[in-house]
Structures are given as C-alpha cells and as structure tokens.
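Per reviewer request, we include the raw input and output of the structure prediction for the construct analysed in the revised manuscript.
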Amino acid sequence: MIEVEIRSIVKDAVALESLLRKKCVFAKEKHQVDEYFLHPCRDFYANPEMFEYLRIRSDPKVSFEYMKCHRKNGIKTHTEEFETDIKDPVILKEILLYLGFKSLAVVEKNRKYFDFKDFEFCLDSIKGLGFFLEVEAKKDLGGIDKTKQACIDVLKELCIEFIPTPEKGYPDMVIENARKRT
C-alpha cells in the first residue's frame, strides 16, 4: 500500500486539538509503542533517496510492519507499507534478535485520529519529542506530488500552520534526542 502524508510540528497541542474537534470528526485515540529493528546485513539508510523501517507495533493490537520511504531531492514523497497482525510479539522479537537484527529505538506515542474529507489527521504526542500532526490522504488525489500538495492545502483550508519536521522518522528523532541528552 502506498501512503502519502505530511508531518508538521505542533506549537500548541491544546488549541490544535480544539480546532480539530470543531472542524473534523474525531475517530479514535490509541497509545502506541513501536519498536524498530535494524537488519544485520542490509543498511536501511544506505540510499539517500530511500530509507526503510522494520517495526513491531503494539496499540493494543500487535502488528509487524515493513516501510520503504521514498525521497526526491532529500524530501520524503511517499511510503510503501506492508503490515500483518502477529499473535506473539515476544516470540517475534526473539526470532529477530536470534537472526541478528538489532533493536534500534522504541517510540511511544499517544495518537488521536480525526477525519476530514479525504484526509486523516493524527495528533501525536511522542514521548521525549513533543507534539506533531500527520496529515495522510485516504486516496490518490492525482499522483504523489498532487496528493502531497493536497495534504498541505487542507491544512490551509483549516487554518492550521504547516511547520515541516526534519526529513526523519520518529525513531531517528528519538535517537537524535537521546544523543543530545548524553
């Protein structure tokens, strides 16, 4: 499945949540814990125009996911995602570690989902990082570039400031933040 989304830094989470609750449909709230793993023989960061993630997500359903994030000129354009439910995350983690995979990072977040037209908004509170807003198109709106622009345009429509995050995933930001504190 191809996913097109943008992510923005949130200055005032309380005000943003209030606005989203007024203008969008609140769908659900989840606490998610994502553990990311590095492949023992393949550098997921070797290609500057692509990066990959392998994770176990608990929210409370447990899934195993592989994501391939594509970039163009250093900017993330879209992500290919492959996901399956798993029954026993402890055993899966043991298998991965036994095969030489290494645990890279754990990202813990509270996520509130909102729906508006052809978009899903996720207001994320990331432990150790702060608040972010992800806007994901629920369908192709004319190709990757047009769909990404539509995500930006819907923020303007709702009068939400778009403050782009660094072109990094949450696990990379968690690792970087931990290094700064040591």
